[in-house]
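Chapter review: from sequence to fold.
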Amino acid sequence: MKARRDVYQAIADPTRREIINLIVTQPYNVNAIAEKFDMTRQAVSLHVKILEDCGLIVIKQSGRERFCELQAEQLDEVATWISQSKTLWLNRFEKINQYLNEVKPKAMENNKKDLLITHLFDAPIELVFNAWTDPEQLKHWYAPDGCSIEFKAIEVKVGGEFHSCIHDPVHGDCWIKGTYQEVTKNEKLVFSMELSNEQGIAVSANDAGKSEDWPEALITTVTFSPVGDQTKITLHQTVAETEARKTGAYQSWFSMFDRLSTILVSQTP
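The token string follows.
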């Protein structure tokens, strides 16, 4: 077993592999080998000695010269191991490829339909839920970076409506109206979001300054789960994740969550 390990260790070094390549067809003068490398003769001799010790080469004397001769049969076991390993990994990669081909269409289909984000807040569930339902708190975090939000109307209860505007200094105002479909304290919020104008009249994505692929109406579901003294929220929106990433809406959620985290830290005893 030790000899086999020595062969593997010997050929692991690139210099020793080059020496083997030099003598693969015929014996090679030891001094001539040393001249092929940018290192001292002593260093090359050490590599030659390691190859000799594990049986990969033999040193033969011819007059005053010494020649290295490859013992190729010592590599047979290595070649067999490489072949077996190659077959093993090719089979594994093939299974992985088959699996990916099965799940990829499903994953792509899900991405077309749903935006799903989870986030862990270092605050109790009561504070996190209040931050989502208290209009005064929403004003301080519920808008992308560099923007602000104004609520023309908001009533957080089942059947209650809201009408808000994101003021964006670059892209202009974006009005949204919606209805709360489910409000379960400390557990769940479900509300619709529809593109509108200042008068609350529904408008197209193009008229609202959105991408033509952005839905004119969508449903947002937020669930709240306690994790010890922390709170995990799961946000689901009926918009393609690819579209949300393209428009920046996806990234905006994380910046808003960071701002909310800062607020919650200041509120946590």
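Two observations follow directly from the output. The chain has two domains: 2-76, 111-267. Residues 111-267 form a domain with the Alpha-D-Glucose-1,6-Bisphosphate; Chain A, domain 4 fold (CATH 3.30.530.20).
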